[in-house]
Structure formats: structure tokens, C-alpha cells
Structures
1.
Amino acid sequence: MAVSTSNQKRKVVINPVTRVEGHGKVTIQLDENGHVERTRFHIIEFRGFERFVQGRMYWEAPIIVQRLCGICPVSHHLAASKAMDVVAGVDQVSPTAEKMRRLMHYGQTYQSHALHFFHLASPDLLFGFDAPVEKRNVLAVLAEYPDVARKAVLMRQYGQEVIKATSGKKIHGTGSLPGGVNKNLGAAERDTLQARVDTMIEWAVEGLELCKTITKADLDKLVKFGSFESNFMSIVAEDGCMDLYDGKLRVIDADGEKIFDQVAPADYLDYIEEEVRPWSYMKFPFIKSLGKEKGWYRVGPLARVNACDYIDTPIAEKERQEFMALGGGRPVHATMAYHWARMIETVHAAEKMKELLADPDLQGTELRRKGERRNRGVAWIEAPRGTLFHHYEVDEQDKITLANLIVSTTNNNEAMNEAVRVIADQYLDGKEITEGLLNHIEVGIRAYDPCLSCATHALGQMRLQVRLTDARGHLIDEKLRG
Amino acid sequence: MSNEKMTILIDGVAVEATEGQTILQAAADAGIYIPRLCNHKDLLPGGHCRICTVKINGRPGSSCTFPVADGLVIENDTDELNAMRRAIVEMLFVEGNHYCPSCEASGNCELQALGYRLGMINPEYPYQEPKNEIDATHDDVYIDRDRCVLCGRCARASVQLDGKRVFGFDGRGLGTRIAVNSPDGLGGTNLSVDDRAATICPTGCLRVKGQGPDIPVGQRAYDSTPIGSDIERKQTVKQAT
Ligand code: SF4
Ligand code: SF4
Ligand code: FES
């Protein structure tokens, strides 16, 4: 498809093949002196999200939207349910409903983080960024670190079982609905999960230790790699505690000072604006008060660990303190620190699951509440990859008239562009896209765990297209991977 | 009506029947399931869907409308008939927009359950992708015509059980649609949420508002046993005694 924008006499070419297959597409533009002028990281996955639910009934949203993303369906399922709680007039779901949903969410976080770290990131970390592509995959991990690989598989499985016990299915369940949930946790289901939860904490801690050991061994390089300073956004509890499921919005600046705090979901539009740029399908959200240039931010594990005041589970809190020491009183900014933060959260999620499984509220019988219908519902959740916003307008007849979703990867859009720019700056040598550059870009993007199929391609190899252009935009070199 | 007993033969099995019964009823009483969709035990037969087609003395006929007669020889569970039934179910799928995974009726839907029971994998017919808008004008009930199979159950229930005339058919052929007797949509009719018509739809088309998938996966009507199992269970009991 070629679109001519007549006023600019410029041709924007959208490659339909790339669109379907979901490559990550990177363009690096050089200036007159051959230095990196700017980079663009294109993602093309999230168009038309909102259209799917327009005209549908509001209680269908939680099961419709989870189909839109193959990577973290539970996050969409829960975010839509929470937004539709508001629409259904339910400000507080029953304790059983809240805890079932939380358990589902921690199960999802646990399995998603385990997948990310062990299957996607650990090959880079264990074998080095420059290792041949054939080596940097989970099969190689399986061959050389069989115990790590085996545990990784079982950790994922555990998370999926938690999801199944709370939503009815391992993927695309129906557990959560406006006003509550459709089931509680049976005693037998609880017992099976409880029997292994200590092991899950133990293995998460092992994974974290592994991540720390690797990181510390190469700290100087890793701290600099693709790094830059930024603002951070995360949901936190009222007292500033980490809360992955619910809370108010906090944004801190590069020094850790609060830009705003305790913003309620319903007010998000007063604080966040989304910019559309002609070259990208994805929007670029920014903090209104700071403007487009300075208002971008990062979300996800690193942002959450930086932004919260403390974590309410003992092991994760101890680890958080050790981690924060890296920043010396400021937030940690290193791109590769995402992995470390992710593993702290993995431990936290496991500790939370243990806490919940011991809670008799999960066997409670008040599943769903009703209330006075409202026309607008906004909610958010900390999805594994970062803050996820769901906003719906619903008419008098219960039909959805508008949906606005800001997904984690969109929130991290500018940050990923920035990471690619820094890496290109650090590793571009001359006018050629080397294997090394390609590898490093891949590793950098992966730290942000963008939820596009290219990031989780078979065996962890990313589908990536990198183009190098001169100051006038002429193609100098191009490389394709995956 | 007399209660005269008679015997019919279904797939080679002798089945006792009572005068006035349809073939479908007599089979069900004997624990033999004949696939059906528009039929409902509380309604007079409509004969719309033809899924209940059997061979009666060698000739095809709908078993939900055909009265029993002594000595009838019926073919029911044959490859030929099941393939024909599967083809009808497939056509019903492509004539609507059925996205089961995001449908609140999934797991409790008779159309979907028939698809499973009859071994439908992927429809071979081209999707028609009709454009419908949900009629949500009623406070408590809505119609999503994307999921209508034109079985007419709602229309019959309204007349026969509720003493109203809320639903009827409109148009012909592929253009046929379920209609309501008000220009203002369902909200303009005298349908009440307590009417039998409001909950008699076999699919996710005519639904009470606000429910969503409120029955957990695993406990839904067809999660563990295929459609028709309730009827076939009777047979097991019979043979055991
Ligand atoms: S009505 Fe039945 S067949 Fe149609 S989408 Fe819903 S569950 Fe599937
Ligand atoms: S609305 Fe339901 S009951 Fe009525 S004709 Fe359509 S499918 Fe049958
Ligand atoms: S069930 Fe007999 S025609 Fe529909």
C-alpha cells in the first residue's frame, strides 16, 4: 500500500507483509557527518484494537479484548473487567472476587516474567550478546544449563495452572466479569497449588540470583549498554507500596522526584496525552505538563521497582533495597536493569501467590456485585510489560461507544526508540549494519519486552529489520533477521 | 388422543412409541438422540432447521414434525445423515458472525455444541459476514443477530408460552431475519425479561443483559459431555435395568 501525502510530496510506504508478520522495524538515519542523527523503531501491531469492541455490549469486553493480544491476555481481561466494574456501578468488588483476580494476575506475571527471563533474555546474558545467533536461544540453554531450563518450564507451567484455576482455562478464560468473578477457588485446587508454591518462590529466587550474578560480572558494560535517563511511570498503592493489580498513578523524574502521584484512573486524560506521528502506527503518549519533548517515560519492571516506596513481601523488599543501591539515591536507569527488576517482581509475584493461597476469602461465595450503571469506565493494571490503560464509554443501552487502550508497549514506545538510538550511537561503525549491531539492537529492545510477535519469535530470536539511511533519507544498508 | 402403542425401528433397534408422538420424541424416550436445533420440548415443532432429518422408510423427513406410525423404519445415526447435518451447521455458522471465543454463550450454546458433536472443524463454505447491529433498545434483553440461526424458537415461545407476539420472521431466503413487532426495536415491544421467549434462544443471539460468561469454564452445559448426552443417559439406565 502506498499513500501519497500531497502536501508534503512524500511517499509513505507501508509494507503489508511486514505488517502481517510483525517485524520490529528499525530505521537509523545519519547526519551529514555520518553520525547517528535519529532512529525510529516501528511497531505495527496495535491498530484497530478499539474497533473490535465498539458496538458490543459492555460485559463482553473482558472476553473480547483478551483476544487482541496473544502475549498477555490476562492483563487485558482484568483491565477491562476493572473498567467495566466502574460501568456496572461497582466501586468495590467482593473480597473473594478481588483476591481471585489478584491471584490470576500474579500467576500471569509469574509465568510471563519466567518466560521472558529464561526463554528470551537468558541466552543473551548467559552466552553474551556477540554469541552466534544459533547459540543465543533457549535450546542452547537447555543443552548447557539443563537445570535452569527445566525449572523455567515448570515455573511457566505453575503460573498457567494458577491462571486455569482462576479463569477456567490456561489461556482466554472467562473468570473475571464486570462486578466480580464467576468462580472461587475450590479447596482441592488450592491444595494442589499450595503444595508447590514454596518451590516456586525458591526457584524465582534462584533465577534472580542467576540474573544478579551475570549482571554483576559485567556490571560496567551492562550499566552503560543502551542506557539513558528518563521519567518512570507506575501504579502504586495509596501508601506508595508496589501494587501490580490496582492503585493510583505515580510518575517520577530522572532524579526520583514525583512529577505527580495518586492520580485516579478517571482523571488520566488530565495528565497523559497521546501524540500521533505519521511514520508510526503506534501512538506516543507523554505527560501533559512536561510536553511532547520531555514528557515521555518508561513503564514496566524497572519503572515499578524505581517508583514504589517499598514492596510488601519480605524477600522482594530486601532485593529491592539492594537493587536501589545501584542508583545511589536516584532511580536506576540502565536498560539492562530491566531484567534484574523483572526477577525481583517474579519473586514478589510468587510470594503474593503464597499469601493469597493461604487466604480463606478465596473460598468465599460472594462472587459478583451489582450497582448503578455509569457511562464511563477507566481502569489500569500493571501488566507484565508495564502500565496498561483501558477506557470505555458505554451508552444508555449498554453498548460500548468508545474504547481507548494504551498498552504497555505503547507506553514504552519512546523509550524503546531512545534505547535503539543510544545503541546505534554506541555500536554503529561506519556505514554498515554489522551482525554485532543487529545483535545489540535486538538485546536492547528485548530488555523492554515489547509485546509484539517479533519479540517472542520462535526460540527467542527476534524478527528484526534494520535500515540505515543517509542525511537525505537514502538507503545505505539494510539487514533482515528472523 | 388415544394411547395406542406401536413399534418403530431406529437404526435397527425396535423402539416402542405412542400414537401422537413425533419420531424425535419417541426416539428421545428410548434414549436415542436425534440431533436437533429449532426443536424445544416445551414448544410445538417448527420444522425450520432440518438438522433432525432422518430417513423414514428410505425417504428423508424431519423427525421433529413427523408422527410415528407402526412399523416405520428409521435411519438416524448414519454417516450420510450426519454429514448432511454437519453441512447445515456449517451453513448456519457462515451465515452469521460466530466468534465463539468471545461469545458469552460459549459452552452453553446449542449451535456450537452441535458443531462439536458433528465433528465440524472449519466451515468449507465462504463466510457471508453479514452486517448487523445489536438491538439493545430493551432494558433487560438484547438481540445480536450475528448469532441468530433463525430457529424461530423465540417467536413460537412468545405465542405459545407467553401469549404475546413479540417475534416473527422478516424477509426471504438469505435475507430472512428475526424481527420484532415494533418499529422502535425490542424496547418498543411488550417483551418482559420473565417471558419464556427471553431465555429460550439456543445460541448467544437473544440474551438477558448483563450476564456475560457467568458460568465458569468446566461447569457449562457442554463442557464435559456432548449435546444429547442427557437423552442418551436414559438409554444406559434402561439397558442396566
Ligand atoms: S452463538 Fe454459539 S456458535 Fe455463535 S458465537 Fe456464540 S457460542 Fe459460538
Ligand atoms: S433469536 Fe434465537 S431463538 Fe430467535 S430465531 Fe434467532 S436463534 Fe432462534
Ligand atoms: S429440529 Fe426438526 S427441523 Fe429443526
2.
Amino acid sequence: MRVPLRWLSEYVDLVLEPEELARRLTTAGVEVGEIITAGDWQNIVVGEVVKVDKHPNADRLTLPTVDIGGGEKRQVVCGAPNIAVGQKIAYAAVGARLLDGHSGDAIVLRTAKIRGVESQGMVCSEKELGLGEAHEGILVLSPEAPVGAPLSEVLGDTVFDFDLTPNRPDLFSIIGIAREVAALTGQKVRDPSIQYEEKGAAVKGRAKVTVADPDLCPRYVGALIEGLKVGPSPDWMQERLSAAGLRPINNIVDITNYVMLEMGQPLHAFDYDRLADHHIIVRRAEAGEKMELIDGSKHTFTNEMLLIADAERSVAVAGVMGGFDSEVTEDTKAVLLEAANFSGPNIRRTSNALKVRTDASTRFEKGLSQHLPPVAAARAIKLMVDHAGGEAAKGVIDQHPGKAKEGRVTVTMERIVRVLGIELSTKRIREILTALGFGARWMPPDRFVVRVPYWRTDVSIADDVIEEIARIEGYDQLPTSQLRGQIPELVPQPRRDLRERVRDALADAGMQEIITYSLTDLESLRKVLPKEELAVAPPLRVSNPLSRQWEYARTTLRHALLETLASNLRGDQSLISLFEMARVYLPREDDLPNEVEMAFGIVSGREPDRWGRPTGEPAGFFAAKSRLDHVFAALRMTADYREATVSAYLPGRTAEVIVGGDRVGLIGEVHPQVVESFDIGREVGMFEVDLDALLPHVGEIVHFQPVSPYPAVEEDMAIVVAEDVAAGRALELIRASKLVANVSVFDVYSGEPIAAGKKSLAFAISYQAEGKTLSDADVAKERKRIVERLKRELNAELRA
Amino acid sequence: MASDTDIKQLEASALKDLDAASDGAALEEWRVTYLGRKGRLTGLLRSLASLSIEERRTVGRSANDLKKRLQEAYDWRIEHATKARVEQVIAGERRDVTLPGPPLPRGRLHPITQTMRDIVASLSGMGFQVAEGPEIEWDRYNFEALRIPQDHPARDMWDTLWIDYEKDGRHPMLMRTHTSPNQIRVMEQREPPIRIIVPGKCYRFEATDATHEWMLTQVEGLAVDEGISLTDLKGTLAEFARQMFGRDRKVGFRCDYFPFVEPGMECRIDCFICRGDGCRTCHHSGWIEILGAGMVHPEILANAGYDPERYTGFAFGMGVERIAMLRYGVDDIRHFYSNDLRFLRQF
Ligand SMILES: [Zn+2]
């Protein structure tokens, strides 16, 4: 909403500088988004041309002498053909900042000799002042402009562009802003005149309004103005409309727009002679009904939408836009002026459905006052009588089927203290409320009965009134305090705790955290998920995606990590290891999706050498596994890995991650085909952990185990088994011995002298007993038992 | 029974063993054997108990002299041994101290995670507990229960991504546009006093530019109890702002509108770039908006089954990206989710 200050000052005295006024308004909740000034016109004043001499050296130039007030005169060089004695003009002194008449660049005016004659300043064109494009001739000011006055006082205007909140439809008007300014600066509002003479015959019997659907139209005021001469509106009105951002059209349309901007009530003027039977019917559309609107667009309506019709056809979409057939033209002689109140939600629904947003619909949808239409109608009639040669009919039609009660709110001092935390004097409260147009009656001993002014449709409860008091007083004027009272009982957040521990562990393992978008496209999901899965459980789709790229709620993060890896490859082999903690959205029948907390990690490139150069082994399965095991170690957990075949992963280098018997995740090398589809030309290790599945296994508090005082016996053992026997199996069997305190693999070997199809596994075993020092015999006995078990279960031979 | 002879024998064997000790471990073992608390010299001194006072005095003196001599011999060996090692290093095993150590892997948290943690830590310190909610929500929680009914003009404040799911001719499922719906969920389940924060991702149907992203991270706060007033809200936010942006920050408040609070406000800090004079960061206002807040609307308390005459509360919500941009001086919000490692590794 653009408000020119010159226009605003018609209704309230502006006693503050624009910047300070904007600051006060913004602080009070009426945000000035931008202050637009028409130009920086320092050193430019109104001058009067008192003499025009010929330039001695150039035919096209003249030497006007300009009276600039205070008895001072200046001779300048001028190239404008329209300069004449007696004109009031804009005189720029040396040092003034202007725009170059040709290039449009900002310049500072200097003393200059033009064809041998010195110019003491200059006479300005519109373009040089930044007012328009014209620069052939000088700008001629009104004859009333006072000589010597700064140009900004005569011409300049500052416009406030407001960012308003949707709860205050009353502020979408100059008068509404004036009321705020008045309350904030202690001034009085001057309401515009609505007095006019009713010279015409009675409207009764010559026009009729029927409100068929009063639920959507609580009030309809219709007024008849005849004898109109359609033409351009007065200059001052055109200037104001332009400054506020509306294009002048003709006097009738301009007046309806002017009053809408002035008072916030959208109006519509129908050509009276083009209304069948001069009868307005406010009704719901018939399903499939069609109409062409003023802007030339054609629409089909549903029976949810409210139309204005005459006896034969629809003539306007209520509160949105008029129809083409009934609009005011050059030939219009009489209009039926509509000032109505419509249901906000219905107007909004219609305007959204038709995709037609207008100055009218954006005001109606916020819920305007039912008391506004007759006031706004009177104002428009007055302007049509004064500026369009109109003759007002006697009386107006006022259908008011949905009369609203006057708003009254009781506000106790106790409530004010409860909400604001401090006591304000009754005097100050009354002062603020009165300044805003509220009525405030003190009811001893402890309350105000507040009458809400008709335009404040947003105020209905005590706390609304309290906000009014607080915002005008200024929130910054209120003291601050700290929360007291009981701190609520702790509600455990195990899911969050686990996620944050895993996040820390992954970063500790050298991985960089990334955050990627929750929405993706089907193409990306298809690359990393099996077809059947997408067919059986299709991901949730957004019905109004910003782009095809962000259309589906992801059910995995595989694609996101691969995409991020791909976008960070810089043509070398540097190790990149990334992780992300995020939710996936698994659809459920007729319910919100199951949002599962996941941890995904990816690693690719070569391990760094002593100098940090990527010369080591290419990172793949084991690089991923060491990082994932780091997480389990941080969680004081151990995971088992079971070879598995999973889509998107490379068979033979993929495992399920098992914790406490539950499958909690996957790990493996990414399938070469998938790697290729993301344009990553190298091996990639990846893991994914379902934190919700892991959660039940997260350990309770660690229980201390006494450290055995008896020494451990360390031994190595090598066995030969078939190639396909997993080391993990052997580890399990060795670990099953009560005397084995610790066991780890330290070598895997196949080749000479091991027989083909076999491999050698070497283990470091640490034997320890709880209650005694183990003798050689004890260890030998246990070793024998282990070897027998390995032989029995895995067909293993002890390696010599 | 100890005698001078014993002492002499002990000395001979000790010196011989000391001579033979070739490394640090052997020296330590020697020290334990001869000079330790349960060592041989101590054992010898213990056996003096059976001697006469006279003998005890003489032998005791010799034993103490021996202890001194052995300690000296040991110290000399230690010093000599380390000295030899030091000389060896100086002679040929110097390190170029400017060379790097072997690299250890370095991982960092995303700047949004880091900022989020600081926000949560600050508010946790004031008694606020984390309560998380779903990212895909019902219209009922995201809008209706927050006093933003169907066809309400305030819906324009949150352009919405709707899920393609129809029920009774409506689309009731959406990507949550703010973390506020979890206020309602928590109030449905708990009784006052309530002091929670809701961190999480939100989504908007919004074209991206340097200051707008369609995916964003928010932290919502809610406190409900008897006797909570606007001055408490101001105090809480002022303390939070100073913890996040520095103790010398000025904190200001202006009236603003959110349908679920009354009165509503916006919290601002004085611009730390221009110190209030006006610059590009603060749009020449001298102030930087950091969050929206207000007193919980009494209708919302009543809908939760709380008595709005007895309980009052406040709520606030902030964008984590915005806070991170201000803290780190990031000039374009799109950096956060483009995940360029050259950006992420700076934090
Ligand atoms: Zn600034």
C-alpha cells in the first residue's frame, strides 16, 4: 500500500520528519517497508522568469533572468524553446544535484560558460529533476508557486510503501493510516467531507437491489448519480492516484478508485442504462455460468461464487471485478454506484479459484466493516457531483440483512497486568484508546468498557485491546523480567539424544555433515531404489511442486549423498567422506507418513598418506565400515555384519548391519551401475542406519566390570578354512570360550602354500581367568577345545 | 640377621646388576628390586629389629649410607642414559618442526547444525526442553488450530507445499510451513507448566533468492504457566539475543501480527555492522529482525483445555538460517543447502 505524504497530510498534520514518522509507525506494527522520495532537490527553488535576452553567440539559446526570491536575481543560459517571461520555473543553483538531460546520469551542477556566456545555475526540465522523460522544454510550475520556496515544498512528495498485516483491513486506506499517525503523534484526524446536495429525483422506484444470498453479502448500498460527463478527472486526483500507484482512467472510475484508496472501501460504478430493469441482484452463480470481465478475461463460475446480476445476466463478480458489458464508457450518463460488504472468506476463495487478485478482492478478503459502505458511497457521490457534473438522486438504497452488533469489550486492570506484566494508569489507557478512536468508559473499581470503532474489525477480545495499549505505549517502554516459577519435569528425548550422539560420532570419524533437500524427483529415486519398491510404496507427492526437481518426499537419502559427492568431485582422488542425518517419509494409508530418522554416510577417494596426499587404497567397503564401527563404538555397541544382496549395492561387497538380532542398516560398495548414473568415476562406500530401529538397543548405563588382577596370556592362532567361510564366524566361535578375554583377526591369506579354495585366518587371542593366574596347561587345554570347535563347525585345520 | 657383611654383599650385587641394566625397563626393575618399598634394602633394614640397640645403630647407619650411595649410582645412570639419548638426537635425529604431522581425518558439523545447537543450548539453560514433531503435517495443526482457518488471508503469510492426498474434497496434508503446529501437539498432551522448544525443518512454496529458501530450519519456543507476562517474554528474548549475538547487543521490540498470538511482536537487535546508523544488512533501519513472538492467544489456550483466565503464555519462532547468516556473515542463504565442501569446511 503506497501512501503519498502530501495526500496523507490532508487528513492529519504531519509533525514529524518522514524517517521518524516511519520509525514510529513501524514500531507500532504499521510497517513502512520503503520510503520513496521523488528526488533530492537541495539547492533547487521556485524562480520567476523576469526577463529573457538573446544569447549573443547562439540563436537557439536564450539568457533568461530569474528572480529567486529575497531580492536575488540570476542570469542563466537556457536552450528551452518554451521559456517566457512571467513563468514560474524550477531554478537549480550551482551545487544542486540533477540528472543529466541527455544521459540521465546523476550530476552535480557546476558554474559553466556556454558559448562564451556564464550560466549562474540553470532552469530545469522534468527529466533533469527526475520527474519524467520530458527534457525538450523546461518544467513550468503553477502560477501560485511562491518564489524562493524550495521546490520540494511545491512539487516533491514522499511516499510510504507499507508492508501491512492481514488483520488490519482498515489500514489499506489513507484515512486508516492517518488515524494511526494521529494516535502516535497526538494529532487530530480530519475526516473528508461527505456532504452533497441531492438534486435529482428519488432513487426509489428507479433502481432496485435484491440480496438473494445474504450470508455472502451482509450489506449492499446502491446510489444513483445522473447527468454525468465522463472525461479526465482533475489533475490533483490524477496526480494522487499515480503517486499511489494507480493509473488514471476517467473521472468516474478514478473517483471509485480514489475513495477506495482514501477510505478502504472498494466501490463499483455500473452504467445505469446498461442494467436490465435497473435491478441489481446479488446471488450465487449458477454452475457453469460464464462472464467476460473488464480486463477482457473470460471465466466460468461455480455455485460457490457470488455474482452481481441485473434482471437478465451477471454483470460483475462480487468484490473481485466488474463485467465487461456494464462498465462505464465515454457515453455513460448515469451510474449505479455499488458500496457493499461481502464475506471475506468467500471473496478469497473466488479470487483464488479464478486467479484474479484485485485491489478490491485483497481488501474484501480481510473482512471489511459493514458500517463503511454508506460512508464511502456518500464520499464518492460528493466527488462525482463536484468533479463529474453529476446529480445525486434523492436517497440511497441500503440493503442490510446481516446487521452486525456494535463491538463492546470489557477490559479489567487485572487482565492488563496479567498480560503485560505492569500496571498502566487509567488516564494513560484512556488517552491511548481515545486517540485510536475507541470509546473507553471507566467502570469503578477495576474495569473499562471499551467501544470498538466500526473500522476495527480485528478487535473483539480484551487482549486485542491490550495490544492496542501496548503498541502505542511502545513495547520498548515496558520493563523486562525473567521467567520464574517451576521448571517443568524433564521429558526424555531418547530419539533426539541418539541422533545427536551419532551425529557427533560421524563427525569425529572425519566425516563432513551435509544437509540436503527433503524433496526430490522420481528419477533420482529410481536410480537408487528397486522398481518394485517404488511401485508398491510410491513416495508422497507434492501437488504444487516448485519444480519437478522437488516433487516427491524422499524415502531414502542414497541419491542425495551420491549427488553431493558427484558435485564435489574436483578431478583428483582426494578422500571425500560425507554424512547426513535426516528423516525419510514412508507413506501410510490415510495417515501422516512414518518419518524415520536415518543416518547416511558415504566415502570415496583414496586414503591419505603421511603427507595427506591421496595415494592410499581406494576407499570402499572397509573405509565405510571403519567409520560405521566408530559410531557403534561411541554408542558402546557392537554390530554384526551379514553378507546380503541389496539393490543399488554391489553384490559380494554388501552387508546387513545387525544389532541385537535386528537389522538396523546396510553397508556396502555402491553398485557400479548406480555410481555411473551419478557420473562418479570411482568406487564409493556407503552405509545407512535406521536410528529408530537402533533405538531399542541403545545401551542402558554402562556397568563397571572389575579389572582382573591376574595376567593375561597372549597367543596367536592361524587356521585354514574354505574361502567362503566368514572370519566373523570363526571370531564368534573363539569368543564363545569363557577364557577368551579378547580376540581379533590380524591376517587373511590365500595362495601358496595354502591349498586352492582355502584361506588362512590368523587371530590374536588373549586368555584370562577371573579368579586365578592361568597356567600353561590351562591355556593349552582351552586352545585344544577351541581348535576342536573350529574343526567341527567350520572344518578348520590348525595351520602349522 | 643383618650384618656389615650382608651390607657389603648387597652393595656388590646391586652395583653389578646396575651395571648390567641396559635399558629403561631394566633400570626401573633394578630400582624396584633394590630401592623399592618392598625392595632388598628395605628388607635388610627390617631385619635390624632383632639386633641389639648398639648393633642396630651401627648397621643401620651403614645401611642408610648404602641407600644413599645406591640412589646416587642410580641417578647417575639415569641422567647419563637420557643424556646419551639427547646427544644422539641432537647429533642425527632432529625433526624439522615445520613439517606437518600425519593427517588425521577432520569432520565438521553443518553450520546450521552448529547454530541450532547454540540456540538449543541457550534456551535449555532457561529451562526449555526440546519437543520435536512431524515435518509432514495436517492442515488442522499447521493452520486451523493456530487460528488460521481455510480461506483466511493470513494463509498468505505461509505459502504452502501441499501433499497430493485428498480427503472429503480437501487437501488436508502438507509440508509444515513452521514449527508452530507442535505447540498444539504438546499442549494437547501435557498440562502447564510448559516450557518447550521445537527445532526442525519447515517448507515453503517460495521462489529462492539470496534471502529465501524453500526448505528452512526453525526453532519455536512456548512457555505456559500462571503469571507469565509480556515482560517475561521480553526478558527471555533479550537474554537469548545477547547470548547469541553478544552481551552488548541492544534488543528492541515492535508490534507485529501472527494469528496465534495476542499481543504479537517482532524482536530485533541493533545492527552490529553499522551499530544502528543504517547499512545494507539492516536495510538502513539500524535494526535486524531476528524473530517473531507474542503472548499465546487465549483461544489457543482454551482449545488446549487450559483455563485462559488462569494461565498465560508466550511463544516465539525464529529461522536458524537467518541467525546463521548474521553470525557468520553469510550473504546468500542458498549456500547452506548447496553443500559445496569449500563452503561447509569453513565452519
Ligand atoms: Zn546496519
